[in-house]
Amino acid sequence: MVELQLRQRGIQDERVLGAMARVPRHLFVAADKQSLAYEDQPIEIESGQTISQPYIVAAMLQALTLDSSDRVLEIGTGSGYQTAILAELAAQVFTVERQILLHQRSQERLLALGYKNIVFSLGDGSRGLPEHAPYNAMIVSAAAPRVPHTLLEQLADLGRLIIPVGSEDAQQLFLVRKERGSTKTEALDGCRFVPLIGSHGFPT
User: pTM (2 decimals)?
Assistant: First the structure.
């Protein structure tokens, strides 16, 4: 997976490649889908959600240029796969999930795997997690109609935010950098994610 789907498609960040090589993706999908775990495709998980294809996870993480001292906010824990990779790359990960089943199972899975630098929260991820702000980096694993101002307010100076933005059917990844109170937005690849449901996302 790492050599064929990531490195050969332009993922060059060795820290990202190493983290993705260490995290066993098959443990984050159902038993009947484990044969697909290392294919470059999204896989359906519980609660009508998906685990993103490996390439898009790697591309988003590479764009964030994470440092081992960073505090990272993840919106959309899902199965916990991306959370585990973040925990390999950053000092502390704060992750928010709105689906209680995913929240519970991902927490059990990641604690069983020995991760101790993750803070789990259940709630509306579009609001961020202001009680632990500011964050050096944020990654949103669901599509929003616009970049939520609530997240920008919780981003530290020199912080980075990556988020899919668009309609519920098609989006584009945006990388937002914050410096001295102002933001600069860069459009990256086209993509398709499940919608970000919440007060600063799509309505239920």
Answer: 0.94
CATH of the domain at 25: 3.40.50.150
Apex CA 164: angle with CA 185 and CA 94, to 5°? 95
Structural domain contains residue 28 = yes
Domain count, the chain: 1
The one-digit pLDDT tens for each residue of the chain (204 residues) are 998 889 999 999 999 999 999 999 999 999 999 999 999 899 999 888 889 999 999 999 999 999 999 999 999 999 999 999 999 999 999 999 999 999 999 999 999 999 999 999 999 999 999 999 999 999 999 999 999 999 999 999 999 999 999 998 889 999 999 999 899 999 998 888 999 999 999 997
Write out the catalytic residue numbers: 52
Query: Could you tell me which residues come within 8 angstroms of residue 38 by beta carbon, excluding any fewer than 6 positions away?
Result: 1, 25, 26, 54
